[in-house]
Design goal:
Layout: H1 8-23, E1 32-37, H2 43-56, E2 59-67, E3 73-82, E4 89-99, H3 106-113, E5 120-125, H4 134-138, E6 144-147, H5 156-167, E7 172-175, H6 176-179, H7 182-191, H8 195-200, E8 204-211, H9 223-236, E9 244-247, E10 251-256, E11 259-265, E12 276-283, E13 286-292, E14 298-304, E15 313-316, H10 322-331, H11 337-350
Parallel strand pairs: 1-2, 1-5, 2-4, 5-6, 6-7, 8-11
Antiparallel strand pairs: 3-4, 8-12, 9-10, 10-11, 12-13, 13-14, 14-15
Helix pairs in contact: 2-10, 5-11, 9-11
């Protein structure tokens, strides 16, 4: 049954009262998770993810979707999440649907429906639209803001950097693509556990990053591989003031001081778009490499350091699903200075080759 927004709280209270009579369950909710679905085809995926998240972290979820139309309206559905079919309830499930210009009403209505005195998490699903302030208006009262930069274009790294700057510590930014890079960071750190290997970094000459491309990929590299480079450049303190780019159909190269980085599109069975296929660092006579094998969840980790013998290792890295990644972001709602620095560095590097905005909104830009 479709509800007006004013009817939602009464309907939720009624559902919990009925549940209390049936099972004696107490109402426990730890936060409000607001999922903003940028494209209607993503709605089913988002609803499945939040259902799984709430089973492990009791919450109120507000899933907001908008559609084109002239019948301007905003309506809602309200029900309870359950830990299993027919099982005990574990949160409120609210869906908001805005038609036409009613999309502009979503921030105020989501704010009204958020649980009082509880953390609020905003999860933007999909690409960030150009010339649009909905995201900025939604994060005003947020404690945590979650995105997936892999679903965005390279130019959105600049938007995310600006979001970090404007937050001034009011909310934490989390990125699911960044969370997927943690295992890579751990394996890279293992290369340099000992002093002889660390000493090789002074001779770093080349970085190779191969990634699985999106269909019809037009960017110089995937956002995730650029975020990886941003992290490497930040921790290695490489120069970023004058990146020099060269591009081909399926590759791109950027010169940062004395270090050349090459990005290469390399489709690989079972690998998500943007996923890492290979990372290699060449430091004179030393070489460090992470290479995905035919098994998409297995990697060969190897290094060649003068005067040292290190056998190559095959490591299995399980790909985390979206609910698990989202839970990790929700369970540790703190600012991540390393993410913010890596984003800013990545944006400085890719800005010369990031797509430009092709159209201005009606009336031009308000500068």
């Amino acid at each position: 049954m479709r509800l007006s927004v004013d009817q939602v709280e009464r309907e939720v209270a009624r559902l919990w009262e009925e549940e209390a009579k049936r099972s004696g369950t107490a109402r426990v909710e730890l936060l409000t998770l607001v999922a903003l679905v940028s494209e209607p085809p993503l709605l089913e995926r988002v609803q499945a993810v939040v259902t799984e998240v709430v089973r492990r972290l009791p919450s109120r979820t507000i899933v907001a979707v908008w559609r084109e139309g002239t019948a301007v309206s905003i309506t809602a559905d309200a029900e309870l999440h359950h830990a299993s079919p027919g099982g005990l309830p574990c949160g409120d499930a609210i869906t908001l649907e805005a038609i036409g210009e009613a999309r502009e009403w979503l921030p105020g209505n989501a704010d009204r429906l958020a649980l009082s005195d509880m953390p609020v998490c905003i999860w933007w699903v999909g690409d960030l639209p150009d010339h649009d302030d909905l995201f900025d208006r939604m994060v005003v009262n947020a404690d945590v803001v979650i995105v997936n930069s892999q679903e965005m274009d390279l130019r959105d790294l600049g938007k995310l950097t600006s979001i970090c700057t404007r937050s001034r510590g009011r909310y934490a930014l989390a990125d699911l693509a960044w969370a997927r890079l943690r295992w890579v960071q751990d394996l890279v750190a293992r290369f340099f556990d000992d002093e002889p290997a660390r000493a090789c970094l002074t001779g770093l000459q080349r970085i190779d990053i191969a990634f699985s491309p999106r269909e019809g990929e037009k960017d110089a590299a995937s956002t995730r591989s650029c975020l990886l480079l941003g992290w490497l450049v930040h921790v290695l303190k490489l120069p970023t003031d004058a990146p020099q780019w060269r591009r081909g159909d399926t590759w791109a190269e950027v010169q940062l001081g004395n270090v050349l980085t090459r990005f290469e599109q390399r489709p690989h069975r079972g690998v998500r778009p943007g996923g890492l296929v290979r990372l290699a660092l060449e430091c004179g006579t030393a070489r460090f490499e992470i290479q995905r094998t035919e098994d998409p969840q297995a990697y060969q980790w190897s290094r060649e350091v003068p005067g040292m013998q290190t056998p190559a290792q095959i490591l299995r890295v399980l790909s985390l699903d979206e609910p698990t990644l989202l839970l990790r972001c929700l369970e540790r709602p703190k600012r991540d200075p390393l993410l913010e620095k890596s984003l800013a560095v990545a944006w400085r590097i890719v800005r010369p080759v990031a797509p430009r905005l092709s159209n201005q909104p009606p009336g031009g830009l308000d500068l």
